[in-house]
Design brief:
By secondary structure, this protein is mainly alpha-helical. The protein has 7 helices and 6 strands; from the N terminus they run ββββαααββαααα.
């Protein structure tokens, strides 16, 4: 969460994640702490699902999660076509990981459990947990991973020569100019992915903080429901756009 405790009792909004402790010279921020919690939870879900896949006795968890994956498979298949079996693990991992990060940022205690952190001569009260996707560093990392994978799989499926010709083509001035535009397009995708996800999640958390401060009793509940839906939509948008751009990256260009 983005709330700091001020001396006046008025919530202060911090755009950057706050460090809560250090490992040697490496700062561990509150968004990184919650990210580690989500990663452990995601691994637990994955291990339980993989265990129940081969088990004769399946729980309700398996059927719910399996239905979700089947829905995602059909959705991504309409975009990726015959490449779906190769790309589905990557795309579904993007969706599930981002969804969990968004929803964990809405849990009670995230942003409200404060600890004392010494900064120079001052001691600040900062949140122990902060939604990971409300940290621009996290969304930028996801965007970079997505765009870099597009290049890697473009080379894998088309070959280095055919793939690089999309960006560097000296056959005529028009193709050279189009290649330059393609390079700008890849850079803009990183910025678009990162700031879209960060902006929506951070704005939602700020909205809930302000509403909870102004009207503490149940006023933020409708906004909580809205943010649950927004978290789902943003995970879906990120993974769908990734699938669209990966489909274009592995398609032969004429």
């Amino acid at each position: 969460m983005s709330q700091l405790e001020s001396k006046t009792g008025v919530p202060e909004i911090s755009i950057k994640a706050e460090p809560v402790f250090h490992l040697s010279s490496f700062k561990i921020t509150n968004s990184l702490v919650l990210s580690a919690v989500v990663l452990v939870f995601s691994l637990f879900i994955a291990l339980r699902y993989s265990k129940e896949v081969v088990s004769h006795r399946k729980s309700g968890f398996f059927y719910v999660f399996n239905t979700l994956l089947k829905g995602l498979y059909g959705l991504f298949e309409s975009i990726m076509g015959h490449h779906i079996n190769f790309f589905f693990p990557i795309l579904s991992a993007f969706f599930v990981y981002i969804l969990f990060q968004n929803w964990f940022g809405l849990l009670p205690g995230v942003g409200s459990i404060l600890i004392g952190v010494t900064e120079g001569v001052r001691t600040l009260r900062v949140p122990l947990f902060r939604g990971n996707n409300a940290d621009i560093n996290a969304t930028l990392a996801l965007a970079l991973i997505s765009v870099v994978l597009m290049q890697v799989y473009g080379i894998k499926f088309l070959g280095f020569k055919d793939h690089i010709q999309k960006y560097v083509n000296l056959s005529n001035p028009i193709n050279f100019f189009l290649g330059f535009l393609e390079i700008l397009s890849e850079i803009s995708r990183v910025l678009s992915f990162a700031f879209r996800l960060f902006g929506n999640i951070f704005a939602g958390e700020v909205l809930m903080t302000i509403v909870a401060f102004l009207v503490p009793v149940l006023a933020s509940f409708p906004f909580l429901i809205l943010e649950i839906f927004v978290g789902l939509v943003q995970a879906l948008v990120f993974s769908l756009l990734t699938s669209v751009f990966m489909s274009l990256a592995v398609a032969k260009h004429h």
